[in-house]
Structures are given as structure tokens and as C-alpha cells.
Amino acid sequence: MMKNDPHLLDFSEMRTNFNGDVLSGLKKFLYEKYGKGIFGKLRLKHVVEARYMAYHIAEKETNVGLAYLSSFLFGQTHSMVIHAREKFSIYHDLDPVFRHKFAKFKADWQAFKYKKINNQNNES
């Protein structure tokens, strides 16, 4: 096939739109669940843990780079994502309370996405 073939699908745009939708949705979810404090410098344990969980979910559900991910979600550097990834792994492996919190966070995120999809379908 030729590169300019109109029948050739451009998956790069789809991927970008999907990633943007996931990240925007995750940001809205975090705001609704934790308020604007999660996007600031607040260092309360439940807020920091929520950031770790958000980074984990964002990494699993998108294919964007660490710099973009950290900048888009929390206005931080890529090194914060690396630190969050390490902390998430340690907490998830060793702390049953954290695992329970993450299971709840993940379920809430899934419910939020499901609600968002249903709302979009009802508007169509």
C-alpha cells in the first residue's frame, strides 16, 4: 500500500486521542474524589498514595512517556513517576491495607469510566 492511501488507517491519532481521554478522565476522577489538593504540593498520606495509584493506572492504560504523564497529571517531573512506581510496587507487595485501598481506588475508577461512557452513549 502507498503511504498516502486514504484506506490506510492512522492509528497514531487514535492512540493519542485515547490516551488523552484516559488521562483527562483520570484527572477529572481525581479532582472529584480528592479535590484540588491532589494536584498541589499536599503531602498527606492518603493524597500521596492516591498519586501513586493514579500513576500506576495511567501507566497501565496509556502508552505515553513518563515526562508527559507526570506533567499532564500533576505538573511534576518524570523522576516523580519513577519514584511513585517504586513506592507503589513496595506498598502493593508488602502492605495489605494499601492493596485494599488500591482495589477500592481501581473499582471507583472503573465505575467512573463506565458512567462516563454511558453518559456519552446517552447523549448520542
Structure, briefly:
The chain is mostly helical. The chain is built from five helices and no strands. It is 77% helix and 0% strand.
| Dominant shape | globular
Cα separation of the termini? 35 Å
**What is the CATH level 1 assignment?**
Mainly Alpha
Which series of helices and strands comes N to C?
A: HHHHH
- Please describe the biggest sheet, giving its number of strands, its sense, and whether it closes into a barrel: none
* Overall pLDDT level: 83
User: What is the count of distinct domains?
Assistant: 1
Characterise the protein shown here.
This protein is mainly α. The chain has one domain (25-112): Chromosomal Replication Initiator Protein Dnaa, Chain: A. 77% of the residues lie in helices and 0% in strands. It has five helices and no strands. The protein has helices at 11-34, 45-61, 66-74, 78-94, 96-123. α2 (45-61) packs across α3, α2 (45-61) crosses α4 and α4 (78-94) packs across α5 (96-123). The longest helix is centred in the C-terminal third of the chain and has 28 residues, at 96-123. The model is unreliable at 1-17 (pLDDT under 50).
